[in-house]
Amino acid sequence: MKDITQNNKEFSNKLKKRAIFEGFAVSRIASIPGSSRLKLRTKALERWLANNYHSEMKWMESEKRKNIESLLEGAKSVLTVGFNYLNEEQKQNSKFKIGKYGQGEDYHKVIFKKLKKLGKWIDNEIPNCKWKICVDTSPLLEKAWAEEAGLGWIGKNSNIINKEYGSWLTLGFIILNKELTPDNKSLSLCGKCEKCIEKCPTNAITEPFVINSDLCIAYHTIESRHHSFPEFIERNLNGWIAGCDICQDVCPWNKTAPFNKSIEAAPKKWIKNLNIESLNWDEKRWEENLKGTTLKRIKPWMWRRNIKAMLKQKL
Ligand code: B12
Ligand code: SF4
Ligand code: SF4
Questions:
Q1: Is residue 161 domain-shared with residue 264, that is, in the same domain?
Q2: How many domains does the chain have?
Q3: Same-domain status, 129 and 226
Q4: What global pTM score does this model have?
Q5: 123 is catalytic
Q6: Tell me: the pLDDT tens digits for 143-179?
Q7: 96: helix, coil or strand?
Q8: Which protein residues touch ligand 1 with a CB less than 6 Å away?
Q9: Which domain holds residue 37?
Q10: Residue 292 CB-half CA count within 13 A
């Protein structure tokens, strides 16, 4: 008879393979409560909040974010997955720039669907196992857990970087109440490079690994509900109207990452053809276009605000 450790190892490997089968680029496992590095990352979150670097994202203050066990009773392990969103057609619209993560189908939905299938597979394999899916909207310190599981390291631009896929991955998680065999933690491979810090036009990376949202173009174009941008943000938009990829585009680890050819990652047609005429779109037209994308977080009035601000600098 096999011992329990051997059984766990076999199941852990099967689970990771099944995740790849469902369409994820990478999958790794961490044990809960994790290493002491998680404590350091939680302290970093506390400092970030104390500095008000979350600006008006008050939901970031949820105490639950500091404790993965608050998300599932008896949580013992977490499977972390990365969905490769890099697609060859993403650079077609170079005048109205949109973050690559948002150009295809809504990654929350894409990842959730795949993880739901994986959950059903788990139900078949271990009928009494409890699990919970988290994709961005749950209060989970996602990058710290992805780093813990060995999916990648936290780069100085604060994104998770995988050796093969770079940082062009959106993240998803299944927390389980079963002990699994953890993978090795990732170690940083940024070395002496500081390209992302140097090239951020608004100096939003205030120190390595730390983003001040008030200075970040991604924050202002996606999250800010103010009717206008601060002057220094407007001056530095340089074409960005939804998100910002500058600190990722300059990263050496992102230069050779493979494309995902699936329809889920392909940019929507309206994004490829977006132009000044969109300022005349009514709410209905915006709603139709934004349906099924993560960009619907940016309300039609915000799109108009972003586009007008960007064009002001170009005229
Ligand atoms: C709030 C948020 C934002 C905010 C704040 C960004 C930020 N860096 O915190 C804004 C709106 C600006 C934003 C922008 C973007 N976001 Co965002 N965002 C989030 C969210 C909801 C929470 C992130 C968070 O916890 N921030 C709090 C701070 C404290 O955490 P942190 O930046 O991770 O800080 C860590 C490091 O500083 C580290 N650290 C501290 N000291 C040290 C020291 C050393 C030596 C090391 C190694 C590390 C280290 O520890 C901290 C805690 O983990 C996550 C989803 C989630 N639930 O986690 C998505 C998430 C991080 N976002 C994501 C994406 C795709 C983006 C954008 C690329 C989108 C775009 N193209 O515009 C940009 C990237 C901007 C950037 N450079 O970060 C992805 C990132 C995927 C990846 N590969 O990492 C996530 C994980 C969503 C997902 N499920 O895929 N985002
Ligand atoms: S997303 Fe853009 S503005 Fe924000 S830190 Fe990266 S380069 Fe700077
Ligand atoms: S640009 Fe350089 S410092 Fe920044 S995340 Fe990439 S490797 Fe790290």
A1: no
A2: 2
A3: no
A4: 0.97
A5: no
A6: 999 999 999 999 999 999 999 999 999 999 999 999 9
A7: coil
A8: 41, 44-45, 48, 57, 60, 99, 101, 135-136, 140-144, 154, 157-160, 167, 169-171, 188, 209-211, 213, 216, 218-219, 222-223, 243-245, 247
A9: 4-86+105-176
A10: 12
